[in-house]
Amino acid sequence: MSHDLPPLNALRAFEVAARLQSVSQAAEQLHVTHGAVSRQIRLLEEDLELTLFVKDGRGLKLTDAGLRLREASGEAFERLRTVCAELKQQNADAPFVLGCPGSLLARWFIPRLDRLNRELPELRLHLSASEGELDPRRAGLDATLWFAEPPWPADMQVFELAAERIGPVISPRYARFAELHSAGPAALLGEPLLHTASRPQAWPAWAASNGLDAGTLKLGQGFEHLYFLLEAAAAGLGVAIAPQQLVADDLAAGRLVAPWGFVETSAKLALWVPARTLDKRPQQLAAWLQAALSPPQSEPVAN
């Protein structure tokens, strides 16, 4: 004997019609036609090989089988409604956990966190920093914000927020600042350049985009993480290279200068969200991030 349920649409139509004692009212509640509800009830009767309604004057009356099914289906759908409401409330009350590289978190996100909390108080954002390779599928993360290159995986919903633009930055405190500030990009070929192990391709990519021979680059002090690299540059230890978004506040404050502008790479700063999620908060966060990332007109333009 088959243990399959009858068609759920048919059960739903029957449950509403039986509860309201009216096919017309059921059709109105379900936002379908009277005929659609009648067809679903007939389909259910055929599947069960039972009569659920009989005519009673100008109306309908439930049979014994119909009464029994109304009780069972009513309890089942009421339980489903209750659980779904509880899940929605639980989802709304839970914090939204965002994974983010530590450098992006420290240099861009935290300075804007108060503004985000004021403008999206219902988000209840919880930040999870990582200095290694991020895994957007890691358990416990609702979304991940990071720089990555397309194509995007099918199991993730990816909100592209801004193109990555990288460029050299230098502090006015650097000993050779005055000389380099007025020179072209080629002046950096003989300079011991600050670099990071997490982005070894950054300087060669920048050189190639400026028509320079990457093989003539001279790398100086190295750092494990981008955050330390940029702190070293701000302290006047040399010329560093970084995404524009991560030095925007330093440029605005005059701690760093970008005399050679920024060039666009193939990477995007994007918000990654599991495709299966029904949470509406990622769309809210993505819209807020996109607005916050829109650069002021005064920012340096690419060469």
Automatic annotation (TrEMBL):
Pfam families: HTH_1, LysR_substrate. Keywords: DNA-binding, Transcription, Transcription regulation. SUPFAM superfamilies: Periplasmic binding protein-like II, Winged helix' DNA-binding domain. PROSITE patterns: HTH_LYSR. One of its GO terms (biological process) is DNA-templated transcription. Residues 6-63 form the HTH lysR-type domain. Gene3D superfamilies: Periplasmic binding protein-like II, Winged helix-like DNA-binding domain superfamily/Winged helix DNA-binding domain. GO terms for molecular function: DNA-binding transcription factor activity; sequence-specific DNA binding. Belongs to the LysR transcriptional regulatory family. This is LysR family transcriptional regulator.
